[in-house]
Amino acid sequence: MTATIAAPADTGRPADQPAAVVLEQVSKVYGRGPAAVPALDGVSLRVAPGEFVCLVGASGCGKSTLLSLVAGLDEPTAGRIEVAGGGTPALMFQEPALFPWLTVAGNVGLPLRLHGVRRRERQSRVAELLRTVHLEEFGRRRPHELSGGMRQRVALARTLGMASPVLLMDEPFGALDAMTRDLLHDELERIWQERRLTVVFVTHNVREAARLGDRIVLLSSRPGRVVWEHAVAVPRPRRIDSLEVAGIAAQVTDRLRQEVRRHGR
Amino acid sequence: MAVDTSTGATTLTGLDRLELAGKAGRRSAGARLWAGTWPKLVALALAVAIWQVVYWLQWRPPWVLPDPLTVGTELLRMAGDGQLWSALATTARRAVSGFALAILIGFTLGIAVARSRVLRAGIGSMITALQTMPSIAWFPLAIMLFQLTESAIMFVVVLGAAPSIANGVLAGVDYVPPLLLRAGRNMGARGLVLYRHVVAPASLPAIVAGLKQGWAFAWRSLMAGELLVIIAFRPALGTQLDQFRQLNDSVGLVATMIVILVLGIAVDALFGAADRAVRVRWGVAEPTR
């Protein structure tokens, strides 16, 4: 692995500052021998506590692979991943991934139940989590009785219930209509600030990245590498349709297209 | 903080109301029961009417093909007589114990094959192959192995039902959506805990379907068994069929057949209701309105 110069891993932060998530030269190869597919190649990334980092990239940049590795659902082929506190970061998917056999409250309560939280305490914590996502009236409904945006909020409440300081989100709003998505951006921003979470947010929507992120990290495709970073200086609250956000989105888009063109030659 | 939470929350609630509006309420339990029952009653009346017409047309002499009224009267008489009940008890006991044994073996087999790659390659396809074997074809061997005993009947009932149940379990475990497994694992569920909280409930619809099919096979195998394996002084429904035929008692024969049919339908309806309940809970099927 001598090609590491290709990854400008310098984030402008000294390495001895505390970090919530550290990735050092992380590679992931699927399969073996001539059929092996490299998904990630020497990715290095430091996420500070309380930081909101958006990962963007075209198809095949290994965004989802990266989150799986950080969430401990998969093992890296090479490199080191460290999560402060050592726990499993909570992961949220593009689909709500709710369990259809459980009620909304049952879904939100499952991580608590798996961690041995007693029924009494569980009930009050589930109620509080549902209040956080404005679904306190819907605890007894089944997931299929809710709309897509509501289901995703249940999923968010369930993920928050894991009480992990690090929240990993894999295109969580990708399947929602624009209005619902904008409202959920506000909600997520509020929850992130209230709970002082560290968020790693994967998206292919550059405007969403500019709306939400403290920092945008661009990954190259096949294999994924960190190729560009941008600290978003726009003060919050931001609007997705504001000029500043659009300007940053345009920059990211240009850089992203440049990256995709490399594959066209 | 800077984000205006109150209007955001109100907008969200507004969207929720809009999106959930227009979902119609359900009718009362009584109305739904009646809506499901009356077509069946009409179909039954029609079947009895056709039977009566065939009888009137004298397609077969009355001592071979009796009329509905005579058979109905005989059924009532049998219901007041101990013999039918003791036959029914034997058959029911065999059905329950045979099916229970089939569930035990089917679950063990299904889980073992689902978990082990070697077992799957070795016997996975054989389970389905076993299902295609008509259960009655097992009886000559079963009688050789166990003589004319209950064990011979149990053997065939289990062979008939266990593969369906194993297949149901296998299909259930195989088709657990990977996303749900990932979600469960991310919450910290591993091994048996993952099975208890994710794999088992996610497999439930396929398992119920397997049980339903397994029951159909078990019931058929049992009736075939009771016709072939006749144990002295132990009346059973299938045995009774054969006795009535030997006595040329077509009224008793048809009456017994009706008992067998009704029993089979009733148990099948139970499984059907369970299947439906699971699917409605999951949102896969619409509840009957």
Protein described:
The complex is a heterodimer of chains A (265) and B (289). Chain A is an alpha/beta fold. Chain A has a domain at 96-163. Chain A has seven helices and nine strands; from the N terminus they run βββαββαααβαβαββα. The model of chain A is unreliable at 1-12 (pLDDT under 50). Chain B is flat and about 80 Å long. In chain B, helix 10 (237-246) packs antiparallel against helix 11 (250-282). Chain B has 289 residues and is mostly helical. Chain B has helices spanning 5-20, 29-56, 68-79, 82-115, 117-132, 139-146, 150-174, 178-186, 191-228, 237-246, 250-282. The two termini of chain B are 47 Å apart. The relative contact order of chain B is 0.11. Chain B has eleven helices and no strands. Helix content of chain B is 79%, strand content 0%. Chain B has a single domain, classed as MetI-like (MetI-like fold), CATH 1.10.3720.10. The A-B interface holds A 68, 71-73, 88, 90-91, 93, 95, 97, 99-102, 110-111, 113-115, 134-135, 142-147, 149-150, 162, 179-180, 183, 186-187, 189-190, 193, 236-237 and B 1-5, 8-9, 11-13, 15-16, 19-20, 23, 179-180, 182-183, 185-189, 193, 197-198, 201-202, 204, 281-284.
Please estimate the helix content of chain A.
25-40%
Number of helical segments with 4 or more residues of chain A: 7
Estimate the mean pLDDT confidence of chain A. Answer: 88
Choose one word for the global shape of chain A: globular
When the domains of chain B are counted, the total is: 1
From the 3D coordinates, which CATH architecture of chain B would you assign?
A: Orthogonal Bundle
Low-confidence stretches of chain B: none
Could you state the order of secondary-structure elements of chain A as H and E? EEEHEEHHHEHEHEEH
Helical stretch tally of chain B: 11
Uncertain regions spanning at least 5 consecutive residues of chain A: 1-12
Helix content of chain B: over 70%
Q: How widely separated are the two ends of chain B?
A: 47 Å
Which structural class do the helices and strands of chain B define? mainly alpha
* Span of the ends, CA to CA of chain A: 25 Å
Beta-strand share of residues of chain A: 15-25%
Main beta sheet strand tally, sense and closure of chain A = 6 strands, mixed
Tell the overall outline of chain B.
flat
Structural class of chain A: alpha/beta
In total, how many beta strands of chain B?
Answer: 0
